[in-house]
Amino acid sequence: MLNAFLWGLLATSSLVIGGLISSNFNLSKNAIGIIMGFGAGTLISAISYELIFDALKIGKGTGFPAYGFFVGAFTFYFSDKLISKMGARKSSSVDASQNSQLIIPMVLAIILDGIPESIVIGLGLFEGGTISLAMLAAVFISNLPEAIAGSSGMKSDGWSKHKITLLWLFIALICSFASVAGFSLFATTSEKWLSFIQAFAGGAILMMLANSMIPEAYEHGGKNAGVATVLGFFLSVSTIILENS
Prior knowledge:
This protein has 245 residues and is mostly helical. Helix content is 83%, strand content 0%.
């Protein structure tokens, strides 16, 4: 259980790192867009080869991977719409959080992104006793642009570096406990429900990528964001091959 918490904390520590980077440096929108593109590429690979592929293997013939995939996707879709009605823009938006009333919806949106990813990290420990380096890297890298973008808005709204750092640390801790949940709460879960949960996370993350991260990456990084996405995908797939060779 402690290992699940620590691995989850490591994966989400990039939120704190992104907050520190944004608090101390002024990154261009183009740079943030390229980072987003790279993170999107790593996540696409992780969804395909770590989540959906594994879900299909353990849930073969049950239909549970398909059910989980669509339930996860539409859970994120409707939750994201609800958060948008509260006043938040896209969770990874470079211009997000320009005034204080948007802070809470923005935080909820980023937690909504992070929890499915963190649960999968815990599930990986439960199933095989080891962490997937590809999934860990994908979560770590994809969190950076969200934290950088959100912190830029907080800084322009007058937040201190100390307050920004504490907020990201709080979110990282929440997601770390989600890793513990993935490890401990599903100890007696059947394989078909494990396949449902993994596919659920894959669907939720893919919906987030399609609706938020990839459009933002292209908007701010231009065609270079596409190059970064390809490189991120290649690096993640290479890591998976090395892990399993």
